[in-house]
Every structure is written in C-alpha cells, then in structure tokens.
Amino acid sequence: MSDPRPIGVFDSGVGGLTVAAALMDRLPNESIRYLGDTARLPYGTKSPTTVQRYTEKNVGFLIDREVKAVIVACNTASALALDGFHADVPVWGVIEPGADAAIAVTRGRVGVIATESTIAAGAYRTALSRRRPELDIHSQACGLFVPLVEEGWQDDEITETVARRYLAPLLDADIDTLVLGCTHYPVLIPVLSRIVGSDVRLVDSAASTAEAVAEGLRANQLEAPSDHRPEHHFFATDTAERFARIASTVCRRPITLEHVDV
Ligand code: DGL
What we know:
By secondary structure, this protein is an alpha/beta fold. It has 11 helices and 10 strands. The protein is globular and about 50 Å long.
C-alpha cells in the first residue's frame, strides 16, 4: 500500500521550515503543504486555549487540502494543543521526537530552552522525565530569540549577549545536553554552540521528527510510491514578503508562497 497525498506541516511562522526541510531531506518522495500562521505569530506568549483554537483551525485548513497526516512543527502548539487532540488524519508533534533525541545523547543533565508558553506547559520536562525519571532537567524561557531570528540577526553580537544571559543558569547547572525546544532556535546554532562549547550536545528536534514521521508513515501504510515526484506548496496567513525573506535561510530552498485566510 502507498499513498501519494501530501504531508501537512504547520507552524506559527517560518521557523517550522526547519522541520519541513528535514522532512524533504529524509523523505524525498513526499509532497508537503506548509502553513505558516504568520498573522497570529507569536504563539509562544499565548495561552493554551488560544493556541488550541489556532491549532484546530490550522489542522482543518491542511485536512481541506487533502493531506494524509499533519506534523505540528511548532513546539508551542505541540506542547499546548496536542493532548487529546482528535482529527481525521494522524497528527504528530515535535516534543516526543525531541525528547527521544535528547535521551539518546545525554549523560544525565539536560537544559531545555523554548518559548515562555512551552516552558510553562512543562512539555519537554514531562516527556524527558517519562523516559528517564532520574534526569536532572533545567528549563529556560528565551523570549527574545524568536524576534531576533525574525529580524535576521541570527549571528549578531546583540544576539550573542542575549544568549549568554539566557544560558548562564544552564551552564552554571553544568548541563551536558541542550534541547532547542523552539522552531527558530536551530538558526541560532552557530551562536549557541560558541557559548555552550563543544562538551554540550545541541539537540534539534527537526531531524528526529523527520525520522519519527518516516516511521509513522510506514506504520500507517501512508508512504508515497517510490517513483512519486513531490510537489511542495507553502501558505501563510499574513502577507508573504516577510516570510519569503526569512524562508530561504531557514529552508535552504527557493519558495513560492500563497497568502491564505484560515
Ligand atoms: N513556532 C514557535 C515554537 O516553536 C516559535 C514562534 C512563536 O512563538 O510563535 O515554539
């Protein structure tokens, strides 16, 4: 059995393109429909009820485009909206694959950085402790990272100063692994790795999510045929200009974007 229908991916903005890019690398036969909910970004400061409402609308939009599964690339939406979420297709988030990736490399002391709402929900802490209850976990909300990346200041001295301040308590706690619990943070890897040094492993959930999706498609007999030629479509809920500017950096591919109302 195979299924040529596309995979739906949504994020609050462009950051989820890190996950879309990992999916394109790992599953080159699969088509993608990507929705960036740029009109309502940021999710990372919003309440669970609001993020749940947005998530339902975004998943519905993608299902209307006949996707066979939805990947919630947004960490905040994965953390706040997926418990008990029901849809007509499988819906997979990024927290569990991110926790798996951290468990695979940690020696016992894990730092988690994410948006304010993801940290408040404790989603990574719960997912990590469920796997290894004895882990020493230190969390830090990094509210300024998303705007800095959106501004294109991913490798800037201001970003480095901000990052040093956020990471200081985690370095004091002697973490050996740092989970990048937000779509935008992989873009900051050069700065972050300079600050934490080579002894701390950086865990980006994009690659492990792509691996989990590959497994999920296989288990549900939803894989595209091996000779399938993929087509990708990108949608955003706000005007396209800002999205397009950042998208090529994040996705490493040229992107054509359609403006939609959700
Ligand atoms: N996509 C969000 C996340 O991964 C970051 C951007 C936002 O706050 O909406 O948590």
